[in-house]
Amino acid sequence: MPETEALKKRIKALEDQLKRAEDELRRSKIGDHLGSYAGIVAHDLNNLLAGIITYPELILMELSEDNPLRKHACAIKLAGEKAANIVQDLMMLTHDSAAATHTLNLNEIISELKKSPDFKAMRAGHPDVKVVFDLEIPLDNIKGASAQITKSVMNILRNSVESINGQGRVTVSTANRRLKAPERGYKQMIAAGDYVTVTIQDTGNGMTEKDISRLFEPFYTKKVMGRGGSGLSMAVVWETIRQVNGYINIISAEDRGTTFTLYFPVTGDNDRKKAPHDEMVNCRGNGESMLIVDDMAEQRELACAILKRLGYSVCSVPCGEEAVEYLRAKKADMVILDMIMDPGIDGLETFKRISEFRPDQRFVIVSGYAETERLKEIQRMGCHFCIKKPYSIAEIGEAVKKGLGVL
After folding, report:
1. What's this model's pTM, rounded to 2 decimal places?
2. Which residues contact 120 (CB under 8 A, 6 or more apart)?
């Protein structure tokens, strides 16, 4: 009877809705646990990685171009950067580390991606796979973090290329798309509206329904751990799209390839602001006085070495209390202040105490942790110059110059 068929359809729809809710709850719980563990280890890992990345930079500045030791210093720096990227991916999944957003054009991001070492290495490793680009011009602008979106597109592209055994084809296309009514996406409805989409279609092995259902879970991977990635690449894609209020759709079947489509909401802002580049430009000082405040001796030594090399006059103290006393007796053009210090007062309390008697004191805040509420409070109080460990020479140099108001 019609009533019976309608009831069956309704029950089936409710079962599907319940399954989606259970999947989302499981993914949320995994993310919460991961966030807790990541937060515990990230601060110490980033402190360690700072030296592994930055000391080779200092060494490279002293070596001639033909010195055979350069390749060893570069290899150490590259290994540190790869490790730092894994920590960054972990921290991104805590939901507390959203990067600064800019108005972007997805075509420009993809054009830059094609020039990147990662893309060139991927192509060299899979010479039988043809990668084709079909970019709609003109393309509307979107809002997001350039590095995160680039990484997400690259993560999917790499998975697509690696899913092909022998010869095959991957097509990357962009488009302006208007949805007049909601459409079904990956485990959720895509709201009506204007979007820019990037679609990555491959002729690879495809995925089972089980693989698709767990694809964005952290550490879920079909690759050998340690040889094909950290198991975080697709979780990073999910979090990137979540942060821009976008959507994902996937069409796949075993031995029939896979099609990923990412939906980015269109922004009306036509003023594209490029994210800062990691270049050694205008980073040198002119003898301005720096006060380094960090509870770890290695971090103080590293920051001192960098800033002295850049031409600053540098002093350091191991805690917030000593920083307060130092600035009661002397002046510093800039305070490089670590956010998390133990024992003693942390960066926020140090910032508050110094600001009471030196309201015009300039600060650069340094943190090896995610963007915590205490860091956000410092930013609300007017300090907008913050960098995360591990930082490069260019990053700390640029932050200091901007904090001094000369860049």
Report:
1. 0.62
2. none
